[in-house]
Specification:
Number of strands: 15
Structural class: alpha/beta
Largest sheet: 7 strands, mixed
CATH class of the largest domain: Alpha Beta
CATH architecture of the largest domain: Alpha-Beta Complex
Distance between the termini: 10 Å
Strand content: 25-35%
Organism: Lutimaribacter pacificus
GO molecular function, one term: oxidoreductase activity
CATH topology of the largest domain: Quinone Oxidoreductase, Chain A, domain 1
CATH superfamily of the largest domain: Medium-chain alcohol dehydrogenases, catalytic domain
Helix content: 25-40%
InterPro entries: ADH-like_C, ADH-like_N, ER, GroES-like_sf, NAD(P)-bd_dom_sf, Zn-ADH-like_protein
Protein name: NADPH:quinone reductase
């Protein structure tokens, strides 16, 4: 099968579009013929050796994929060849075929494959962040940084479902327009961020900040939190891991809360399954709609990842084998 192969931790342009052995369905695993593989920011970090995990080489990146079940192992009970499914595979998604354990495979019926991928990591991360980690309440103010990205769009839509007032933060007028189209009550830029948040909240500050950016934006938000607020640490797309003056958390009485969605899915599989069921229900009701910016040939993975890491993408991008 054709796949994107990482032979060493190296710059993105070193990724190879080549041949790998077809995966096999053993024990409780299924083989999926991939219709779409979701592109995520951590994929670009992983292949450069900049992520928390460092797989042995060679490996195929890609933590999510959707397609059609091609074969099943002898221990698989609820899936059959021909079923359309999506999976959190961890690795292997950037390929014509991928294998995954049945427990991490979800039926998707006639859903668009790229939209199904977006529901897995992007919407899954934002849902867990706002539901379990922030415990976002109706009537609270949610500030979303990196709001035009895949997880940001998800946070806007989910925040609205949970009854929050959503302030989106994005770098350009075009991105801010997309944020309001997806449900944000207000959309602002990064200039004078602390003062703008204070202004839009009547001086109170943000109840919850969703921050996948880090750097200077984190610093500004750390000074614009409401009492009993929750500052969610999602990631560091700016490339800068900020340092928090902990006296701010003390005197303003807010919490800094880490969000590591991958760890959550492993540590609390039943809660994770419940989250996915809720997300799929919202999707079928039309309450959440992933924004798919583009679908690109699998061979273009390196260029697509460079765009995602450069914060040039809007919404979700998918690779199509």
């Amino acid at each position: 099968m054709k796949a994107i192969i990482c032979n060493e931790f190296a710059p993105l342009e070193n990724l190879e579009y080549g041949d790998m052995p077809d995966p096999q369905a053993g024990d409780d695993r299924v083989v999926i013929r991939v219709e779409a593989a979701g592109v995520n920011y951590p994929d670009g970090l992983l292949v450069q050796g900049l992520y928390q995990s460092r797989p042995e080489h060679p490996f195929v990146p890609g933590m999510e994929a959707a397609g059609v079940v091609e074969s099943v192992g002898p221990g698989v009970a609820g899936l059959h060849p021909g079923d359309r499914v999506a999976t959190i595979c961890g690795l292997g998604g950037y390929a014509e075929k991928v294998t995954a354990p049945e427990a991490r495979v979800f039926p998707i019926g006639d859903m668009d494959a790229a939209e199904a991928c977006a529901l897995l990591v992007a919407f899954g991360t934002s849902h867990h962040a706002l539901k379990q980690r922030a415990r976002l309440k109706k009537g609270e103010t949610l500030v979303v940084l990196g709001a035009a990205g895949a997880t940001g769009i998800a946070a806007i839509q989910i925040g609205r479902i949970m009854g929050a007032r959503v302030i989106a933060v994005a770098s350009t007028e075009e991105k801010r327009a997309i944020c309001t189209e997806n449900g944000a009550d207000a959309a602002i830029g990064y200039d004078d961020l602390k003062d703008r948040i204070k202004e839009l909240t009547g001086g109170k500050g943000a109840d919850v900040v969703y921050d996948p950016v880090g750097g200077a934006a984190f610093d500004a938000c750390s000074r614009a939190m409401a009492r009993n607020g929750r500052l969610l640490v999602i990631g560091f797309a700016s490339g800068e891991i900020p340092k928090l003056p902990v006296n701010l958390a003390l005197v303003k009485e807010y919490s800094v809360v880490g969000v590591f969605w991958g760890n959550f899915t492993r540590a609390e599989p039943q809660v994770y399954a419940g989250n996915m069921a809720e997300l799929l229900g919202w999707y079928r009701q039309g309450l959440v709609t992933p924004l798919i910016e583009g679908r690109y040939p699998l061979k273009d993975a390196a260029a697509v990842l460079a765009r995602v890491l450069g914060r040039g993408a809007v919404g979700k991008i998918a690779l199509i084998p």
